[in-house]
Amino acid sequence: MSTITDYIGNSPLIKITDPNDRVQLYAKLEGNNPGGSVKDRAAFNMLAKGLESGQYRSGDHLIEATSGNTGIALALYAKQLNLSISLVMPDNATPERIKTMRAYGADVILTPAEKTIEYSREYANQLSQDRGYKLINQFDNELNWQAHYASTGPEIWKDTNGSVTHFVSAMGTTGTIMGTSRFLKEKDSSIQIIGAQPKSGDSIPGIRKWSEVMRPGILDYNRIDTIEEVSREEAILGARILAMKHGIMGGMSSGGAFHLASKLSQQLSSGVIVFIVCDRGDRYLSSELYN
Fold first, then answer.
1. Under which EC number(s) is this enzyme classified (predicted)?
2. Which residue among 79, 167, 225, 238 has the highest number of C-beta atoms inside a 10 angstrom radius?
């Protein structure tokens, strides 16, 4: 009999109509995971493998900083694995995200938005020491990228029949791009890996430009061929076009990846581009994104 965790991964790869008919453009719909985002893969892997290795034990209380999607996935799967969890996040997160985490049974701790996710990370670290909670630390956790090496990369390779030439992804914790890059480059070193970062001064949920002191330990710039900047306006417009023209409703980070993938498609004479639609747009309906 199936359980909820059996439906993590194997997300659809959908062809996008593109003005350049010499290029094939595909969207990988990660919102189809049980928790509604690409973070389901890493969250379950970090928890399940952590239990297998003895890092965690049944009944333990865990803590993690998150901007949203990882927290939702951790809240969902922690309860399935008999773990308790506290999630620390900036207080400008959409109500949909906060309520979803609490609905799954997580304790949600909000920090001042002006201090950014970097302060949420610091606060989570401090609480883990003060209260004895076990810190997951997705930013330095090798099980984060390993989930994508084992699933996201192989799925893209299989579903494109090995013809993928470019992979475009938002860069947050960087687990998705790190693991997928490792797998695809092993299959074909000529595949180009493109990461999205926000333009200076712009804030885009799910796309980060970390200060050097808070740079994720799993991030290896050598595994990314090109880092492209995307503005908040471009990310918003990309998300709206995805929804209105292509029937794919995602968040702002998905819009940013789509913007870069579309821009890239116009520059190529041929190719197969895959970009990640990180989550579902319904968790942003209270924000400005679809106003």
1. 2.5.1.47
2. 167
